[in-house]
């Protein structure tokens, strides 16, 4: 009996060990488990049972132990990924720390130089005041400052037509570039808003008190130096304003480097200035520490060298020593120093545009940071960190963006060697019409003639530029993107899309506000910092009768939008689009049109005009409004920007004049619409002003918030929420962050109510965004019971002003049911006590 008890005890102990926490697996068992883990890291209970049955070597292991093995394996994988991520962050921080220490050393040198210059100037002033009693000391001071601002380098007279002379110019260019990149040759001032960090774009600085304009950037990328150099040398792939870059001669040097003689043309950003060209020498070499250097400068009469090719209608600009310093990082990756220094011949542009050509900030945004962003984008795509929809490769989507920008730039500049020529005007110089009768050259050789009218035709461009005052560019472009119906004409869009079809649509008569259908924006791609994104816009034509085939069909636009974030550092705000067909092939024909808004440096002359002015002085509307003396928002005060509009259309030869009339009138209508919108969203109009009402248009967000709260108080005799401040901005913020979902929808006869506004809780409840909100109708959100209740209570709402709705269920845009305990509906009235919209508040909502 005792022997049996001992045997039972030993058996229980053995079973306990088998079911314990630790089991020693053989290599064959581990290999079998790893194969299953590669296919399914988290197998179900039935899958684990099946594994034991199918794999004899695992027969002696309990299912619970296999479950524990997979749990441990997932934990180890998670720890490995986290350790790898931390190692990557640590490498970035180490490299950034090194970069910041170098920057600190450079700043200390700059401080020492400034202290020395300050002492020298004090000595000069003291000497001048002690030796003379006239005003000659002033001339001494000004002379010294002028010499510091515009240093003149005396170049020796080399025979730059032979390799030895070119090498001497290249070596001097290298020395001057390095003194700017890592030394104190230029007084650099860090740009506001650029903060260094492992995930930031880098350190960006602009010049102060130097000849021309200069910008400098330092950053980290996870690419090898040779790959970075290859990307940066291909300037047309990332510099959107580069029209062409031709390498006319290549001279190898004895130290393993190369000297290239290059000719580059750049687009003008607006129709009001001429394009620029550069004749430069580019030197590529390696330093003793293994760093790669690509430096470049213009060849002029003072530097010597061969004479560049002539170009008509272009202004020859000068590139002062600039370039790229690329050093490898420990653990992989590269540290990049970029310097751009140019003299754009500012006196050749109209005075209103000179701040643009004198702005180092604009150069930094348009050229310097563009290079750094492009390299970082390629690095992220190479690492697989960027995922795009639509089944397109990142390189293909990048090509679409480049083609949209290039096509728009071609239309704005209208180079004669591309086939563009000007048409006569109708007596008013506000809109310029240019035609291109050689579209095969314009579109490129990969387009065939079947895409264009068989009996002759071409491309027509209507373009105009205007000056905006007190209108934030980001806000205006965002409005143009989200509210296409405020400026676009559906018939004109249909005509533009007809160039993709065999039978073109008849030339329409442009008419304002002829856009009865809705738009749906489908995102395609965006850059790392979301400063630019590519999307497809579907314009729905269901509002037209089926017998009008051309208008009843949906249309598609490929659209590129940038600069819509007011807090981001961007060169300009831009909205460029081109009609595409449903197939949307990689080599699809693109004929871009759109808007570009370039901010100018704020003026300090104290002008208080808030008008939208056309530069031709023929489209002034309204009277200038003076900003009240009590307003304290001076950040947007006297903010000026240049808006450029360009629309392109194909035409058949026998309809060319008709298309020109339509295009000119359409652009004028668009200009008037933009002026109306600009006046409505100008910051100076945010306060409630007495006097005549503005031109009719959608109310501002602050005004709408005030109407919502005031109407709720008048109808219900209670407050929607406790108002902490009476200012419009405070009311909007409280409304936006309110915990209950607040939505507004339109009140239209014989039309389904469409949502026009929602606070953050409302957007979360509908699972949508402000852009897509207008595509949601009220009938689709409420369930059948809710629609019946609203139909019964609607007359009460319109007579009494409000109504309580019982608890119910609504549906989000993702078809998820949402429950709410109670809802209140009330009509929102404007300042004239006219019905503006219908508002709802859904209380204590939650997803079912």
Give a quick precis of the structure:
By secondary structure, the chain is of the alpha+beta class. It has 21 helices and 29 strands.
Name the average pLDDT.
Answer: 77
* Helical fraction: 25-40%
Give the CA-CA distance, first to last residue: 63 Å
CATH architecture of the largest domain: 2-Layer Sandwich
Shape: globular
Helix-strand category: alpha+beta
Which parts are unreliable, with pLDDT below 50 for 5 consecutive residues or more? 1-20, 133-157, 444-451, 510-516, 603-637, 684-699
Biggest sheet statistics: 11 strands, mixed
Number of continuous helical runs: 21
| CATH topology descriptor of the largest domain | Alpha-D-Glucose-1,6-Bisphosphate, Chain A, domain 4
The Rg value, from CA coordinates, equals 33 Å
GO biological process, one term: cell differentiation
Protein name: Homeobox-leucine zipper protein HOX32
Pfam families: Homeodomain, MEKHLA, START
GO molecular function: DNA binding; DNA-binding transcription factor activity; lipid binding
């Amino acid at each position: 009996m005792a022997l049996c008890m001992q045997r039972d005890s030993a058996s229980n102990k053995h079973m306990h060990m088998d079911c314990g926490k630790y089991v020693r697996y053989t290599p064959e068992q581990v290999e079998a488990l790893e194969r299953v883990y590669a296919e399914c890291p988290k197998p179900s209970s039935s899958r684990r049972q099946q594994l034991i049955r199918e794999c004899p070597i695992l027969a002696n292991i309990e299912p619970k132990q296999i479950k524990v093995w997979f749990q441990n394996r997932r934990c180890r994988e998670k720890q490995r990924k986290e350790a790898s991520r931390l190692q990557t962050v640590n490498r970035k921080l180490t490299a950034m720390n090194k970069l910041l220490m170098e920057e600190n050393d450079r700043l200390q040198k700059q401080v020492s130089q400034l202290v020395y210059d300050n002492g020298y100037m004090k000595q000069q002033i003291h000497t001048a005041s002690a030796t003379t009693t006239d005003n000659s000391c002033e001339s001494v001071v000004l002379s010294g400052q002028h010499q510091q601002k515009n240093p003149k380098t005396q170049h020796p007279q080399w025979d730059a037509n032979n390799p030895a002379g070119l090498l001497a110019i290249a070596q001097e260019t290298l020395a001057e570039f390095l003194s700017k990149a890592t030394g104190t040759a230029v007084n650099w001032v860090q740009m506001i808003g650029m903060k260094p960090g492992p995930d930031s774009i880098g350190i960006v600085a602009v010049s102060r008190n130097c000849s021309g304009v200069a910008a400098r950037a330092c950053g980290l990328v996870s690419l090898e130096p040779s790959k970075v150099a290859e990307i940066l040398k291909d300037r047309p792939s990332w510099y959107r304003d580069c029209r062409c870059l031709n390498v006319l001669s290549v001279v190898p040097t004895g130290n393993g480097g190369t000297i290239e003689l290059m000719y580059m043309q750049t687009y003008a950003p607006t129709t009001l200035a001429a394009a620029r060209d550069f004749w430069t020498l580019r030197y590529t070499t390696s330093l003793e520490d293994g760093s790669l250097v690509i430096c470049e400068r213009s060849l002029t009469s003072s530097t010597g060298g061969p004479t560049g090719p002539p170009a008509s209608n272009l202004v020859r600009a000068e590139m002062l020593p600039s370039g790229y310093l690329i050093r490898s990082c420990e653990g992989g990756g590269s540290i990049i120093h970029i310097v751009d220094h140019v003299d754009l011949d500012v006196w050749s542009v109209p005075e209103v545009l000179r701040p643009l050509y004198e702005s180092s900030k604009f150069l930094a945004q348009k050229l310097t940071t563009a290079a750094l962003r492009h390299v970082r984008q390629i690095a992220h795509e190479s690492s697989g960190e960027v995922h795009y929809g639509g089944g397109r490769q990142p390189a293909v989507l990048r090509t679409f963006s480049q083609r949209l920008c290039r096509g728009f730039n071609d239309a704005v500049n209208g180079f004669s060697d591309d086939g563009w020529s000007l048409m006569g005007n109708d007596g008013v110089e506000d809109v310029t019409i240019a035609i291109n009768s050689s579209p095969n050259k314009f579109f490129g050789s990969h387009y065939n003639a079947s895409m264009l009218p068989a009996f002759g035709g071409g491309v027509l461009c209507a373009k105009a530029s205007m000056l905006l005052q007190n209108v934030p560019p980001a806000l205006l472009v965002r409005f143009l993107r989200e509210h296409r119906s405020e400026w676009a004409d559906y018939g004109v869009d249909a005509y533009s899309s007809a160039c993709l079809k065999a039978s073109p649509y008849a030339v329409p008569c442009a008419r304002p506000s002829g856009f009865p259908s809705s738009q749906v924006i489908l995102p395609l791609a965006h850059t790392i910092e979301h400063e630019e994104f590519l999307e497809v816009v579907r314009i729905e034509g269901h509002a037209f009768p089926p017998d009008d085939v051309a208008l009843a069909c949906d249309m598609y636009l490929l659209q590129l939008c940038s600069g819509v974030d007011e807090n981001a550092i961007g060169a300009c705000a831009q909205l460029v689009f081109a009609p595409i067909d449903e197939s949307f092939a990689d080599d699809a024909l693109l004929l871009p049109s759109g808007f570009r808004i370039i901010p100018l440096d704020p003026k300090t002359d104290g002008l208080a005009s808030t008008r939208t002015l056309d530069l031709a002085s023929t489209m002034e509307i309204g009277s200038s409004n003076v900003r009240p003396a009590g307003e304290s928002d001076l950040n947007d005060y006297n903010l000026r920007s240049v808006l450029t509009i360009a629309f392109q259309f194909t035409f058949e030869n026998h309809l060319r004049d008709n298309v020109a009339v339509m295009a000119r009138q359409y652009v004028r209508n668009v200009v008037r619409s933009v002026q109306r919108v600009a006046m409505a969203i100008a910051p100076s109009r945010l306060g409630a002003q007495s006097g005549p009402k503005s031109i009719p248009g959608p109310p501002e967000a602050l005004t709408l918030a005030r109407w919502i709260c005031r109407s709720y108080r008048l109808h219900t005799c209670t407050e929607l929420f406790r108002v902490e401040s009476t200012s419009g901005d405070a009311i909007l913020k409280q409304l936006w962050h309110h915990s209950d979902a607040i939505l507004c929808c339109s009140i239209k006869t014989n039309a389904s109510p469409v949502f026009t506004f929602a606070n953050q809780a409302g957007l979360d409840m509908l699972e949508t965004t402000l852009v897509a909100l207008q595509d949601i109708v009220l009938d689709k959100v409420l369930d059948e019971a809710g629609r019946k209740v609203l139909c019964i209570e609607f007359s009460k709402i319109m007579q009494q002003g409000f109504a309580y709705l019982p608890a119910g269920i609504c549906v989000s845009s993702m078809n998820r049911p949402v429950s709410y305990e109670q809802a209140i509906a009330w009509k929102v009235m404007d300042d004239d006590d006219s019905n503006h919209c219908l508002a709802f508040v859904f209380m204590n909502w939650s997803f079912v």
